Amino acid sequence: MIMGAMTERHASETTRLLEEAAAGGEEAWRSLVGQNHERLRRMIALRLDPRIQVRVDPSDVLQETYLEASRQLSDYLRNPVLPFFLWLRQLAGNRLSKLHRRHLGTQKRSTGREVSLYRGALPEASSAALAAHLLGRECRPSEHAIRAELKIRLQEALNRMDPLDREVLSLRHFEQLTTPEVARVLEISEAAAAKRYLRALLKLKEIVSAIPGFSEGR
């Protein structure tokens, strides 16, 4: 009951800020951007193809997303089909798709160690990106060879997961979307989204426990 009231207050506050921003309120717009910045950055970091990361800065993707959102804000408010964050996420995903087409053209991901996730509306996160996130921060130089081997083993294990389970894991565990947000993104029920996530977590635990030298606590 308390959680529901908090959610309603948050939605009401977001609506107020959106209306002020649409009327030219710069402070309201900065507040909206600030509330969603880190979540969008996580999504971009996960889904930006590793082959173009040396040429494309995630900060530039974010800035272009905010500019596009500012231009389209009035249209969005006339027909807000998606919650504001998911709309921003969609704009950021569209920007990523354009960057991938521009830099990679029709190139396909390599097989084996670069199997993509779920073929949804946004660019897929690769098993390499998920493995890197699971392994956490960089290690000492003396541990590079061990880390590289662990990453390969983890990628190969992730590639054996059901594609939709991998995507739910990506959305909930790495992008940190809520269950209702995951349900909206994948166009499934909240119950199905929650069930998929639990199943994916169990499979992930099974995967990492079978990899020698991998610690779940990293």
What Rg, in angstroms, do the CA atoms define?
A: 19 Å
Number of helices: 9
Q: Estimate what percentage of residues fall within beta strands.
A: under 5%
CATH class identity of the largest domain: Mainly Alpha
Mean pLDDT: 81
Sheet having the most strands: none
Principal-axis shape equals: globular
Question: Residue ranges: pLDDT <50 for 5 or more in a row?
Answer: 1-6, 108-119
Coarse structural class: mainly alpha
Question: Main attributes?
Answer:
mainly alpha, Arc Repressor Mutant, subunit A, disordered N terminus, 218 residues, 9 helices, Rna Polymerase Sigma Factor, Chain: A
Structure write-up:
Residues 1-6 and 108-119 have low confidence and may be disordered. 68% of the residues lie in helices and 0% in strands. It has helices at residues 2-22, 26-47, 58-78, 84-104, 127-135, 144-158, 163-174, 179-186, 190-209. The longest helix has 22 residues, at 26-47. The protein is globular. It folds into 2 domains: 2-104, Orthogonal Bundle (Rna Polymerase Sigma Factor, Chain: A); 127-209, Winged helix-like DNA-binding domain superfamily/Winged helix DNA-binding domain (Arc Repressor Mutant, subunit A). It is mainly alpha-helical and 218 residues long. It has 9 helices and no strands. Helix 1 crosses helix 3, helix 2 (26-47) crosses helix 4 (84-104) and helix 3 (58-78) packs across helix 4 (84-104).
List strands and helices in order, with pairings.
Elements: H1 2-22, H2 26-47, H3 58-78, H4 84-104, H5 127-135, H6 144-158, H7 163-174, H8 179-186, H9 190-209
Short description:
The chain is mainly α and 218 residues long. The protein folds into two domains: 2-104, Rna Polymerase Sigma Factor, Chain: A, CATH 1.10.1740.10; 127-209, Orthogonal Bundle (Arc Repressor Mutant, subunit A), CATH 1.10.10.
